[in-house]
From TrEMBL:
Organism per entry: Sinanodonta woodiana (Chinese pond mussel)
Name of the protein in its database record: Uncharacterized protein
InterPro entries named in the record: TRIM45/56/19-like (IPR047153), Znf-RING_euk (IPR027370), Znf_B-box (IPR000315), Znf_RING (IPR001841), Znf_RING/FYVE/PHD (IPR013083), Znf_RING_CS (IPR017907)
Pfam families, sorted: zf-RING_UBOX
Keyword Zinc attached: yes
Domain B box-type: 95-145
Ranges in coiled-coil conformation: none
Keyword terms of this UniProt record: Metal-binding, Zinc, Zinc-finger
Amino acid sequence: MAYANIDKGDGFNCPICLCQFNIPRQLPCAHNICHSCLQSYITAEATKYNELGYIKCPICMQPASPSVKDRPIREWASLFPVNALLESMLPAKANANRMCDSCSSENVSTLAEGFCAVCKEAMCTDCLKFHRRQKMTKSHAIVSVDEFDGNPQNVIQLGRDLFFLQHEGEYVKFYCKDHKVAGCGTCLFRNHNICSNKIDMKNEVPALLREINPDEIISDMENIEFRLQTFMAINDSNINNTESDVNTITDLISEIRRKINSLLDDLEKGLKTEEKIIYKEENNRKQEENHKSVSVMHAVENVACSV
């Protein structure tokens, strides 16, 4: 399945089907995809992703691992968390006359004037004032209805930023396996309330600490230190051995070169000696032939004179 020209939309539409989000699943890279579209995308590449153990975001191609890898691949889409902020904003976008959620809970209809990106609620003017006065909520990011209508992408991005926000001064109370992040109680309530794989640090950590044996830790540390020292000694020994091997090979090459030069010298001497012998034999043969020629000439002259 090709997703080369995925539309980024206006922030409220799925980049694959281009329709308004229906159960928006959020990947670790913070991109959102409809549950059904994500499942279809995973199924289309099931063989490849089943071997990898993770999928790639169809928008940015960043790896995205399901929270439980040993589940069948047909269930992977359900293992990615729902984007609660985005899902809560969808009805507000669909309704031009958005009503205050706080007032609606009291069966009072009041036109909304702003939206809290942290609480994920639309609020009227009075509720916004109260929201900004409370110690627990005065630092929340509030966007006006006009900004919500005019720049939905900014609101979506604000939600992404808040999703990964750490709250200074708060104790870490849980760890979310779905998003691989630790957080405080505020983080849990705001961003991870629907996540299915959370660890309660208060209950889990003491149990883990009770299982820790200080003597075993010290022994493990000493073992690690010994291994490091052994590794460093082996490296030093390897360096020394390498230098020795290089010297041995260099000496061997020098010896081979000396023997080759000696063989070449002997060959050269042998060739020169052979040359002298051949020259001497050829010279003696020529002298003998000349001597015979002179003798024949004298014999011919003597015969001529006698006639």
